[in-house]
Structure formats: structure tokens, C-alpha cells
């Protein structure tokens, strides 16, 4: 297999570390494959296996009573007191995404493996391993099927009777394992306790009648040989070919249902999926899996012209690229890998991809592997609509609906706002919306931030404007957007200049230095707050116009928008982050939330607001390019929106900088933000958001759009002087196919899903287009 492939990751040795493994998923079940020869290890996950149970949103009913005192302290410019008082409106921390278990296939045949080869073909969502041992060739093929809700592993030996292996299951959670009727069965419970400090999950001593149950079933289908078993092990001897079926289910039955006494029958579901799949041949299962996957994956194709990169395994290819060498197909592979990960991790309604997608091996995962909603959860979905994966957006959109339910209580009890809903920094599968911080123990800079509703509501509008699905907007989307906007109408106050601001306010995870030297987080009128609420109000107004509804409410939003505290440009020419022109504790801070209006928002552009765009550029220059993986993903999108393709490309290359696996001892360790050998994003540690942000940025460099216009090649870097793309989506319900040579657009084909008009823009050329539903138009430039 050529290392120049734009859709295959391959290696000439098994994975030793998690960050070298290859991941598979069907949007619910995740599998992390190490591909060892003597012993193969596969981590198993289920998107719905979390600690805890439905949240009590009314956990701190008196919290809102502290708001007036915080506002008073801020009015008196007593920021230290405001910071301390802000802790009084904190609640519990989120629950944790749990590791389901580890499957081990241990070969009785021991020896040295030669001609070892391991791959993941992301055009088919298939992984393969092959090697020779003692003159026999062994192969394994793995996939996780969405149509059949099963993991399938096919093992073959070139010599008759060459397969001899044991299968074991174990879990870090409380569980028991036994063999029944030649089926390996593992049953257990997720823990009940919250991960209080995002560091150590408290031990729990016994399985009780609370928490989410899980079941894993494993069965072998053989062509020859003999299956035997002990109490906890399945064994196959003297076989030539075998298929292993892995079925997983949990009792999770929705964010508001107790998984213990209102849960699904996980045993029955797992058994049903196993029995149905066992009746089908490997080829039948594989064919259905590939067809299902490719109907999403094949929608988009990208070509960046000729490459001279040599044939190398992916880890070596990444190292070569990090030295500044050309490898256009590695860039395409990274883009395609982002799409692959979204299809593989986001197909369960109400359960979006978390910080690690659906691939978590840890009992105590970093940051609970939760939903971090001050950037990370949203960044996971930046590529959903523009890379033609709208269906993968639905798990997030349905999760936002869940948040709007618990968030109604949070709005009242934590913030004293009786209309609408609010959500804060962190959430979990139970749609927790309260501000976190362990009831006053944590720093307000990250714990106290009620803006998630504003940010998330823009995803609803994005889904509508890309799909033109008015039915969705009317029935589901608009009421949630309206609820988010209602909360902020009730939350904002007037400053001494008569402008609307938020108070208290923080800017995600950053801190200011006040004139007296105090370093704090709690302020009023933070730029990020106002940028997000601007977008929330603007999109809610647009949605009400589309639906021709709520004219009075729309008028309230329009009146409020006109009174917002305006953007301020600081003495350094930067877009101010704080109400006053104060310095940051960390001028190069990874968050750039004050630039929200540039991206993912759209009210700052080089054309419409040149001064604010220039100030945004200055802010990025001050921050510099060196940052964590997800932050780099965001900055690439920001540079793309500033139409600076070469700066965006420079940072895209840095995002693909090789990072050593966690725990690997080397003389000169390569650490920091970048990309692990298996192409996972290094925050560090692994977080999936950078993969999604980086892939979204590639699309953003090629096509940008709003409700009225589509910009073609707005941030094309010099390195991509010739290429083509097919299937990229634009707002207004359009799909684009185009090719370019020497950085000059040659031909564009535009397809309309629902009918409508737009203006195509390339450089200083413009062309107005009107299309009927299903119509395609070819334009030569």
C-alpha cells in the first residue's frame, strides 16, 4: 500500500501505546485496536456508558440570591470580592465517560512476527493486520457495523488448523465475566459518583441498584477446529478461519430516565444484535457496513494536485512532514480522517461525540471526557454541515434540546432568570447545565460561565441554513433558540453608559490583570459574552423571520442588539477581551473567545467590518501560533476567515506536527500540541476536537458562505495552487464542485438541494445564481 494514500493509515509494527492504535466506531460502539501479533488488545467503549444518573438541576436553589451582591461588588470595582462571591453560584461537576472493557485475543502460537503490516482504510472504515509467524501467514480484519450494531473480527491462517487462541474480557468497572453456551458474557455497572475534581474517580465498593448497566457478548463462528471454554475464557483450537462477533449494550434510556429502574434491557439488546448478526456471513455484514458508511464518506472528495512524497508508514510520514517536507496527500488524509471520526463517533441521538469521541481507555479520563461547552463540544461539529455530514450533527442538536429542559431550572435557581434556559461550561450525558466548581471550590475563570446556550443555539441555525429544513426549524430548532435568547434578555443589565452588558462575566479560562495588580476572572461586559449573545440574537431574529413568527419578541431582540456595549479596540490595536483595556495574565492564552464574531460567528468580516477584522488579526498576532491542538484548529479557521490562506496553511502544517505517544520514553521527547502517530489530535493529552477543527478549516479555506453569498477559494494557500473538491456544502442549501489551476478558479458546478438564490464570489468576480430544487449549474470562470 502506498504511503501517499489519502485514505489509508498504515504501520509496520503493532501499537504499543493508545496514541498509536487504530480506532473504529459505528456512532455508538467504539473499538481501539492495537493489532499485536502474539496478543491483540482491543479497548471497547459505548457512547452511552457514563457514571451517574439523571441530574437534579435544582441542586443549589438559593444560588441566584448571590447575583445582586456580585453585581454590586463589580459596580464598586471590587474585583477580588466579586471573584469570591462568584464561587457561591457554583454547583456539582460533571459525570464521566466510562471505559467499557478490554477484549484480548491471545495466541497459543508464540514466535517472532515478520512482514508485519497494519492499516486503517478510512474510505471503507475497515482495519487489517497481517504478519507471518513460523512460516504461516495470519490475517485479521476488523470493523464496527452501524446497520448490524456489531463488531466483527475475521481471523485467517494460511495453514490448515493454524489458528489457536484464547479470548478474554476484562473491565476497569465493577463487572463479572463468565462463559454461557459458548458465549463470553461480561455484565457490569458504571460508577455512581461524579468525578469531583476531574482527576480521581472515587472508588465504589459494590454493584448496587443505581447507575448504568452494561453487557458485552462475544461469540466465535469457526470453519473448522474446536471451541472450548473455561469459566472466563473462550478458546479456539486448530482452526483455519474464524469470525468473532462482539455485541455491546447499556441500559441508558435517555438523559431523564433512571438507567437502573427505567433503563433499557441491555442483556436482551446485546443478545438480539448478536443472534441476528451471527446468522449472517462475514461478507454480508461487511458489505452492509461498507455501503452504509460510504453513503456518508463518499459525498466529499478532495485533490490537491501531484505529490512527490515517498512510500512511508504513517508515523514516519508524519515525522517527515514535520521536517517541512511536502505531502499533499497527508493533508488530504488528515481532512478525510476528521470526517471519518465524525461518522464513526456521532450517530446516537442525544449523545454527541465527547472530548475523546467514543474512544476512552481511562477510568479517570482527562477532564472526565465530558462535554466541554466553552469551545470543545462545538468544535467537534464545525465540519458537520460544510463537509456534507449533516446527519452527524443531529446527536448534538438533540442534546441541545435536552439541555434546554434541565437549563430552564438552572436559569432560575443559579441566575434568577425566569424565562428561557441556560447552560454552563461542562455537561455530560445527563444534560447537566449548572455552573460547575464543586459548590465553590473551583476557580471562576472556568467554572462560572453561563454562555453555552448562546453558542449552542447557533448550531441550530447552521443546521437550518445549510439544509433549508424549515420543518426542523419550526418544530424543534426555533423554540430552543428562542429559549436561549430569552435567558440572555433576562440576564443582561445596563452599564453606566446605558449599554447592555453581562454581569458577572468571565472570558473562558483566561484572567485579567486589574490596575491594582489583582489577577482575576470575574468582570462585567466581557467581549466574548457579547459576541456570542450577538450571534444568538441575530440568528434567532433571522429564524423568526424565516418562520414569519414572533414579531414582538423579534422586536425586543432588535432593540436589545442596538444597545449592546460596542466592541473596543485596545491600545495595541487588538480586539479587547475585557470591558477595560487590561492586560491578560497570559497574553498567549489558548482561548480566543473574544474573536467569536469572526469565527464561528459571522458578524466580523474583512469586508463588512474591516477595523474589527484588523483588530482580530492583531489579537492573533499577539497570541502567536504556538498553542494546544484544539486551539490551533480554531486559529486556522480564524486566519481562513481573515482570508489569509498562507498563515492558515502554516498553522495547519503545525497542527500536523508529530507528537510522541503519552508515556513513551525518548531522549528528545516531542511534546505539545500537534498530532500523534495514529493522527489523533494532541491537546495534549488526546482530545478529538483538534481533528475536527483542523478538518473544518480545510473546508473553510476552500469555501466560505453566508445566507446570501458563497466565496470560492477565499483563503487558498500557495501550496495548494492546483486542485479540485467535490461535495463541500454552502449555506443556502448548496453543494459545490470546483477545480482550480495556478490558484485560478477554472470551473464550478453548483447544486441546489431546495432551490434558492445566491451570489458566487471569487476574488473581484461576482455572479448571481438562481436555481430550482435539484437543479445543477456549471459556471466557467
TrEMBL record:
Coiled-coil stretches noted in the UniProt entry, renumbered to this chain: none
Lineage: Bacteria, Pseudomonadati, Bacteroidota, Flavobacteriia, Flavobacteriales
Protein name per Swiss-Prot or TrEMBL: Glycoside hydrolase family 95 protein
Domain Alpha fucosidase A-like C-terminal, residue spans: 704-770
Keyword terms: Hydrolase
InterPro entries linked to this entry: 6-hairpin_glycosidase_sf, 6hp_glycosidase-like_sf, AFCA-like_C, Alpha-L-fucosidase, GH95_cat, GH95_N_dom
Residue intervals passing through the bilayer: none
Domain Glycosyl hydrolase family 95 N-terminal: 9-253
Highest taxon, organism lineage: Bacteria
Keyword Transferase among UniProt keywords: no
Domain Glycosyl hydrolase family 95 catalytic: 281-702
Molecular function terms, GO-annotated: hydrolase activity
Hydrolase listed as a keyword: yes
